[in-house]
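Can anyone check this?
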Amino acid sequence: MISPKDREILREVAKLQLEAAHSEKNKERVELWKRHNACRGDHP
């Protein structure tokens, strides 16, 4: 079983990860990698 305290910690960490995944900086990185993988960019 996961204790209520551990569950709250996991939820907070998941919230931080979700915010990072949806950040503008990460969206730019995703676009750079897509261009790189399509051989249309100069760097990833």
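Reply from J.R.: I decoded it. The radius of gyration is 17 Å.
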